[in-house]
Amino acid sequence: MDEINKIFEEVKGQGRNVLTYEESRKVMELAGVPLNKIEVGKNLDECIAKANEIGYPVVLKVISEDIIHKTEAGGVKVGIKSDSELKKAYEEMMESVTTYHPGAKIDGFSIEEMVSGVEVLVGQTTDPQFGKMIAFGIGGIFVEVYKDVSFRLIPISENDVEEMYCEIKGRKMLEGFRGMPALKMNDLKSLLLNLSKLVEIHPEIKEMDLNPVMVTKDGLKAIDARIILE
Ligand SMILES: Nc1ncnc2c1ncn2[C@@H]1O[C@H](COP(=O)(O)OP(=O)(O)O)[C@@H](O)[C@H]1O
Ligand SMILES: [Mg+2]
């Protein structure tokens, strides 16, 4: 049994169908998805130690099964530049997360390398009529505003990826807009084909998303991951 199956079996064995942030990231990594570097801490002291390992600036994120949209709960703080800023961010986060979701089970905190670039969205959904599809589009706040996302049935081809890219209305933002890093077609092909393959081999995946994947000057890096099983 491969490592991805092992993770899925464990999740199902615990009566869950939603993978944790760390489990989702692990599966994505095994599937060949490039991710930013993270460390996990259980309390403030551990978070400070991990932040110093990674090197400031860092991002702090809450890890909790009860919190799906971390930003909404005040569970994401970016651009933390020192131990004292981290302490303040941690305390504010504990406060807002417990206010937003009283009794939420907090599993820990992710301390992350800061990544800058243009945000795109990559994922997979199941259409009740057509089946499993790969999604690609503009990420970040533009997801809700423009719904600028293109879909293709799995398995997808390199040609599908080129078409999906051309269908994005805001693709100008991905072509080196205002000195921002440009998206390389080969990076996008390898990411989307890897995800398509992942779902083909593991049909028990119902839904997954990498929102956002950051288009950086050194290529793509996913900075959020979520996987839901059937
Ligand atoms: N490592 C990171 N580096 C830079 N920006 C980040 C990082 N992690 C998160 N962000 C920013 O915070 C936003 C929300 O973070 P994310 O992990 O996607 O949480 P959620 O989608 O659950 O609210 C991202 O869209 C991105 O703008
Ligand atoms: Mg996200």
Task: Please give a structural write-up.
InterPro entries: Acyl-CoA_Synth/Transferase, ATP-grasp, ATP_grasp_subdomain_1. Residues 25-61 form the ATP-grasp domain. This is Acetate--CoA ligase family protein. With 230 residues, the chain is of the alpha+beta class. The protein has two domains: 3-35 and 116-229, 2-Layer Sandwich (D-amino Acid Aminotransferase, Chain A, domain 1); 38-113, Dna Ligase, domain 1, CATH 3.30.1490.20. It is 36% helix and 28% strand. It contains seven helices and ten strands. It has helices at 3-13, 21-30, 44-54, 83-100, 142-146, 158-167, 185-201; strands spanning 38-41, 58-63, 76-80, 108-113, 118-127, 131-138, 149-153, 205-216, 219-222, 226-229. Strands 5, 6, 7, 8, 9 and 10 form a six-stranded antiparallel beta sheet that branches. Strand 5 (118-127) and strand 6 form a beta hairpin. Helix 3 (44-54) crosses helix 4. The longest helix has 18 residues, at 83-100. The relative contact order is 0.17. The structure holds adenosine-5'-diphosphate and magnesium ion. Magnesium ion (MG) binds next to loops.
Set out the fold topology.
Elements: H1 3-13, H2 21-30, E1 38-41, H3 44-54, E2 58-63, E3 76-80, H4 83-100, E4 108-113, E5 118-127, E6 131-138, H5 142-146, E7 149-153, H6 158-167, H7 185-201, E8 205-216, E9 219-222, E10 226-229
Antiparallel strand pairs: 1-4, 2-3, 2-4, 5-6, 5-8, 6-7, 8-9, 8-10
Helix pairs in contact: 3-4
